[in-house]
């Protein structure tokens, strides 16, 4: 595998392996990978986290045109049992410095809710945003908080669902933040933005791993 080439600070030319059917789109994918890195770098700069995006989040990338092949690689990278059945909507991951995803076409078929302007670019940024979150926490993944929060952070960082603004009562917000199971990413985007109106993203990250995070959120919601 060839070495990374730094195009500009925090943006790298990432070695890319494509399914044969996607080779004709290689240049487009290479540009999207660069754009995704710039998107996350801009977010980091806005929030004084520039130092955390100077080093590349990935050593190489691979894009599949077959969901089963993607699933097998993800299970292998994450150390899970090969027999584990992954949800249809699982479309990308960044594990062991390797980014993998299904093709934009498969992403659209398997997760139509995710399709918006620059949705594939945002998908890549989303996975890098999880790694940014971990760097901010000095590699303490246990401090990332509940599912809704760390997914909400990545959704916000990459700009997914920015134009999704349904009215949500606090009772529904409370139901979401109390639920330990994975839920709607669109709703996570609303909930995360709601709490950003109450406090800073830095303070949210600081408290997300606390045992009393839920109570703290309810307290700040009264502000």
What does this structure look like?
It is a single chain. The protein has helices spanning 26-46, 67-78, 104-110, 119-136, 147-158, 170-178, 185-196, 201-207, 213-221; strands spanning 5-8, 11-13, 16-18, 60-64, 92-95, 98-102. With 223 residues, it is α/β, with parallel strands linked by helices. The protein folds into 2 domains: 1-136; 139-223, no CATH class. A 4-stranded mixed β-sheet has the order 3-4-6-5, with helices on both faces. Strands 1-2 form a two-stranded antiparallel ribbon. The longest helix is centred in the N-terminal third of the chain and has 21 residues, at 26-46. The chain is globular, with a radius of gyration of 18 Å. It starts with a strand and ends with a helix. 32% of the residues are buried.
Order of helices and strands: EEEHEHEEHHHHHHH
- Proportion of strand residues: 5-15%
Computed Rg: 18 Å
What is the general shape?
globular
Number of helices, counting only DSSP H or I runs of 4 residues or more: 9
First CA to last CA: what distance? 53 Å
Structural class category: alpha/beta
As residue ranges, the low-confidence spans are none
Mean pLDDT: 96
Query: What about the largest sheet?
Result: 4 strands, mixed
Q: What is the total domain count? A: 2
- Indicate the percent of residues in helices: 40-55%
Spatial order of the strands forming the largest sheet: 3-4-6-5
Strand segment count: 6
